[in-house]
Write a structure and sequence with these properties.
InterPro entries: MliC (IPR018660), MliC_sf (IPR036328)
Pfam families: MliC
Protein name: Membrane-bound lysozyme inhibitor of c-type lysozyme MliC
Shape: elongated
Strand order of the largest sheet: 14-13-12-11-21-20-17-16-15
Radius of gyration: 21 Å
Number of domains: 2
Order of helices and strands: HEEHEEEEEEEEHEEEEEEEEEEE
Largest sheet: 9 strands, antiparallel
Structural class: mainly beta
Number of strands: 21
Strand content: over 45%
Signal peptide: 1-23
Oligomer: single chain
Biased composition (Low complexity): 42-59
Number of helices: 3
Helix content: 10-25%
Length: 237
Amino acid sequence: MDARFRRMRRLPIVAFACAAALAGCRTERDGGTARPVPAPPAAAASARAGASPPAAPASHWRCGEQRVRAEFDNAARRVALSLPGRALALPQAPAASGARYADGRGNEFWTKGEHGTLALAGETARECRREPTPREAAAARGVGFRAGGNEPGWYVEVGHGEAPALRAVLDYGERRLDLPHTAAAADGLAGTAADGTPVRLRIERTPCTDAMNGQRFPARAELRVGDRTYHGCGAFL
């Protein structure tokens, strides 16, 4: 990654307005600048006692023809599986090796490293293989920053270099933009799409939580494409 893009990562990012109800990110704000809001000592102690644990890390698996999202909760000793059209919560069960989760209805998910098996009640067990998360896949392609949001679903990927490329997939994949070059700005990047549409990506280095799945990110992002604005969370890779 070149020095200019590294500087953009380190410098304070100019804050931008965001309504509290925006889907895709939640931050504490005051006067336009993101900052933690201290609680009174008694309230802080109460909050610590009843605070919700961090969202469990998710992994993605290909089991036969099905894609499965798994959230392992080591504290609760269970896994939450998201499959097409259904969801399962399986408690941890004894296993000779690896990690096994099963209920009393014939549903079982077993993993060891990058491999595993999935058995659903009344169906033949499927071989599973872990797939990279979107962030892992982007990093493997050499992407320097990735952000995304919901309603409508969108994501943006930024490359490396003095004038990094920017690729945006918008509106659940219905619209795609590829900018071969962008210019660094004090608060992110700006460029023009092939059809003349102005594109601006603003990045704020403040914690951001995905409102759909609870996943936490180190940055929040605002992508403006023409007169449309998309809000979400992101991370430098």
